[in-house]
Amino acid sequence: MILDKLQNKDLYLNINSNLKKAFEFLENPNLEKLEDGRYEIDFDNVYAFVQSYSTRNPEDNKWESHERYLDIQYIVDGDEAILWSPIEQLIVEKEYSTEKDATFYKDNSYCTTLNLKKNYFCLLFPEDGHKLCCIFDTPSQIKKIVVKIKI
After folding, report:
1. Which of 14, 29, 48, 127 is deepest in the core (most CB within 10 A)?
2. 38 near 47, Cβ under 8 Å?
3. What is the pLDDT along the chain (151 residues), one digit of tens a residue?
4. 3-state DSSP of the chain
């Protein structure tokens, strides 16, 4: 797991050859104007989902992890908390689905809260369990981009 500001993206480009394309997409000065939905960047190697929603209480969200894709969770507007835990600390609730590229887990008490504000991103790896869409300080309307990067 990496938590940082977009301005420091160059520190991470050696992790995966597709990260450069993902970060270039996030540097678009018109991100606020993008409509919700899926955006193709490089076929199924790199693509993005633009999402708008209200943050919720953590107990209303699910723990998950992914095997085939890295996630960049990038906040365009608003504040969001993401709960993080290594997957070996989580108990599987629903086995891995290749269709959804996701494993879902039961709640646990071992986690760290990552607080993201505008222009911050979180890079999540297959070993990173995460619970998204959580309230930071108060419920917030969010505009977020999730970029999926094939491993």
Report:
1. 48
2. yes
3. 999 999 999 999 999 999 999 999 999 999 999 999 999 999 999 999 999 999 999 999 999 999 999 999 999 999 999 999 999 999 999 999 999 999 999 988 789 999 999 999 999 999 999 999 999 999 999 999 999 999 9
4. CEEEEHHHHHHHCCCCCCHHHHHHHHCCCCHHHCCCEEEEEECECEEEEEEEEECECHHHCCEEECCCEEEEEEEEECCEEEEEEEHHHCCEEEEEECCCCEEEECCCCCCEEEEECCCEEEEECCCEEEEEEECCCCCCEEEEEEEEEEC
